[in-house]
């Protein structure tokens, strides 16, 4: 990045830093970027140096011995000659409110010492551009501290000695004075040139070589249209003879744009005072204008900051709205997955119910045929045995007795098949989605009968039914929810026993335990009575990371092909349909070695609905 500040000399910086180490580091860094640096160790010493030279910019540490950086900045702003010097405040950073205090004291910028060197250099160059005026980043024709410029038009002929004396007096006051004999000696475009625009123009109104009144009128027209960069329009002082100062001449002069008019016969000191008054007022107005421009720039910066803050707030609002929309989409996706799981399970259960009902019907017909003929065979066999001599112990009698025993065994097996078919028909009822009065122990026993093959001889089932036998609910609450929970417990115990090397067999000891209980409890959240089912097992337990996802649809810990991950998800949905809860916890410490898990299903108990449903149930049973 380049900067166009001055082609004649590098920008001068006044570094105010009490630490020799910090001052050396900062000075080397600034001089390495082309700045001329003067260093002092205190704010008082900095103010003393301003009597000899005004720098382009002041770089000050806030923590200084004696007056601090903020107090020094206030002193700079109290003087018209130094109030426009840019001040960059340095600090260690981290102190709350320090930046605000530094800026309010008059500093133009605030940068921590720990900032990157390039950032400090960029801030200095930006401040130098701002202090240089409005000429597209170039330095203004009016420096921050300069001598006033005076242009005298006239001074040839009889007026030459008077004009020369006036010019010498103005130069002795430190002003820059330019004298031209007539307006034609200077190009018209140079009268308000930004590099040498005068603060005051002294015109000889009674010159023999040009019309002073007409020239003042032309100057006034020009200063109405041309704005001098960094300052205001120059003041015009008319110089006339003693006679011209009386009569209608002054009125013509002031009408032409003259700001003040004096006779050349007055004392030179008085004339100088009149010129100084015009110049002082002009320079003060230039300072006021510069301050006003700075105020406008600050207001623009504040508005820009507010607009940026509003834009950031708008972006934050959009981000929040987007986050909320994403959360809503995630929730909708979750509900969609749940709905899909329910639809899949509903279709599955509907198909399974039809299949089970059909199979049960097909098995029931030949089963009834076999049972009927089995009774005939048993009756005829009994008649044959009755006709035999009981004392005859021959092979014929032994064969008949063996046949009778086999028929009785067949009867036991057929009865078991008949009970299984009956349980399948109960489980696959088509009205399972309806609320009705359910016999809880009977329903649970039906579930356990269907799971007998899973239990084998290695799992013992204990029952503890303490709640009322009747419950008004959907049959799916018991058939499906309890089936899934008990079945998962049996699978977990079987896997644990297989890993431990225990096989299911007639002589094998029972090592697995499943407790099924019912009870009435008061909900701590609502204060209402609830019908509670508990299923406790001594299996391997459920890891914490699995507990968080155990009710998610399609999540399963079983091998591929052994489970769909829908059982507990649908169980959760069924319990929700009853406005109940389903939870999982570890067993009480000290029980069964601290292993296993406890599933608790809690649904509202509504005795009034059960009483209303009782007559219908009795009628149905009748």
Write the layout of secondary structure elements.
Layout: E1 12-16, H1 20-32, E2 36-40, H2 43-49, E3 57-61, H3 69-78, E4 87-91, H4 98-104, E5 109-112, H5 117-131, E6 149-153, H6 160-172, E7 176-180, E8 200-204, H7 212-225, E9 235-240, H8 249-256, E10 260-263, H9 268-387, H10 395-427, E11 435-439, H11 440-450, H12 452-455, E12 459-465, E13 470-474, H13 475-499, E14 512-522, E15 529-537, H14 544-547, H15 567-577, E16 581-585, E17 597-604, H16 607-621
Parallel strand pairs: 1-2, 1-3, 3-4, 4-5, 6-7, 6-8, 8-9, 9-10, 12-14
Antiparallel strand pairs: 11-13, 14-15, 15-17, 16-17
Helix content: 40-55%
Please tell me the overall pLDDT: 76
Radius of gyration: 54 Å
* Order of adjacent strands in the largest pleated sheet: 2-1-3-4-5
For the secondary structure, the number of strands is 17
**C-alpha termini separation:** 100 Å
Beta content comes to 15-25%
Specify the oligomeric state. single chain
Q: Main beta sheet: strand number and arrangement?
A: 5 strands, parallel
Low-confidence stretches: 1-6, 133-145, 504-509, 590-594, 615-622
Secondary-structure content class: alpha/beta
Q: What would you call the shape?
A: rod-shaped
**Helix count, per DSSP?**
16
């Amino acid at each position: 990045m380049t900067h166009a500040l001055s082609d004649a000399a590098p920008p001068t910086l006044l570094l105010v830093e009490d630490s020799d180490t910090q001052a050396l580091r900062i000075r080397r860094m600034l001089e390495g970027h082309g700045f001329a640096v003067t260093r002092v160790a205190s704010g008082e010493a900095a103010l003393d140096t301003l009597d000899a030279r005004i720098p382009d910019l002041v770089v000050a540490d806030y923590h200084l011995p004696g007056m601090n950086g903020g107090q020094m900045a206030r002193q700079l702003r109290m003087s018209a000659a130094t109030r426009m010097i840019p001040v960059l405040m340095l600090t260690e950073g981290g102190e709350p409110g320090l930046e605000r205090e530094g800026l309010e004291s008059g500093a133009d910028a605030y940068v921590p010492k720990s900032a990157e060197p390039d950032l400090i250099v960029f801030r200095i160059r930006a401040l130098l551009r701002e202090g240089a005026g409005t000429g597209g980043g170039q330095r203004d024709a009016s420096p921050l501290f300069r001598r006033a410029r005076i242009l005298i038009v006239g001074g040839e002929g009889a007026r030459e000695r008077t004009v020369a004396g006036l010019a010498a007096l103005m130069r002795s006051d430190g002003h820059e004075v330019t004298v031209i004999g007539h307006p034609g000696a200077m190009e018209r475009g140079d009268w308000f040139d930004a590099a040498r625009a005068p603060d005051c123009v002294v015109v000889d109104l009674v010159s023999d070589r040009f019309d002073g009144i007409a020239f003042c009128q032309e100057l006034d027209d020009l200063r109405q249209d041309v704005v001098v960069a960094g300052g205001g329009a120059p003041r015009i002082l008319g110089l006339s003879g003693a006679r011209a100062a009386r009569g209608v001449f002054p009125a013509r002069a002031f009408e032409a744009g003259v700001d003040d008019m004096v006779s050349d016969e007055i004392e030179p000191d008085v004339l100088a005072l009149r010129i100084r008054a015009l110049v002082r007022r002009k320079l003060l107005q230039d300072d006021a204008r510069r301050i006003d421009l700075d105020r406008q720039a600050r207001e623009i910066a504040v508005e820009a900051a507010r607009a940026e803050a509003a834009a950031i707030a708008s972006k934050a609002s959009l981000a929040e709205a987007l986050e909320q929309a994403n959360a809503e989409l995630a929730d909708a996706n979750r509900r969609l997955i749940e709905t899909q799981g329910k639809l899949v399970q509903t279709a599955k259960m509907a198909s399974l119910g039809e299949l089970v009902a059909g199979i049960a019907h097909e098995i029931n017909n030949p089963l009834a045929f076999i049972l009927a003929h089995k009774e005939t065979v048993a009756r005829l066999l009994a008649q044959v045995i009755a006709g035999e001599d009981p004392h005859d112990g021959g092979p014929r009698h032994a064969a008949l007795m063996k046949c009778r025993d086999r028929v009785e065994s067949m009867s036991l097996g057929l009865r078991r098949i008949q009970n299984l078919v009956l349980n399948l028909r109960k489980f696959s009822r088509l009205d399972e989605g309806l609320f009705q009065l359910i016999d809880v122990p009977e329903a649970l026993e039906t579930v356990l009968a269907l799971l007998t093959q899973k239990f084998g001889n290695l799992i013992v089932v204990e029952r503890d039914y303490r709640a009322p036998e009747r419950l008004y609910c959907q049959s799916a609450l018991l058939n499906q929810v309890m089936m899934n929970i008990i079945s998962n417990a049996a699978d977990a115990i079987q896997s644990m026993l297989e890993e431990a090397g225990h096989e299911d067999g007639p002589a094998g000891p029972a090592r697995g335990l499943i407790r099924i209980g019912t009870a009435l409890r008061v909900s701590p959240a609502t204060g209402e009575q609830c019908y509670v089912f508990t299923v406790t097992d001594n299996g391997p337990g459920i890891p914490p990371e699995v507990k968080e996802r155990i009710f998610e649809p399609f999540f399963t810990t079983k091998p591929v092909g052994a489970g769909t991950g829908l059982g507990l998800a649908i169980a959760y949905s069924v319990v929700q349909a009853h406005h109940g809860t389903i939870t999982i916890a570890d067993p009480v410490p000290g029980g069964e070695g601290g292993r296993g898990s406890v599933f608790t299903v809690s649904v509202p108990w509504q005795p009034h609905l059960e009483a209303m449903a009782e007559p219908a149930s009795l009628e149905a049973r009748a």
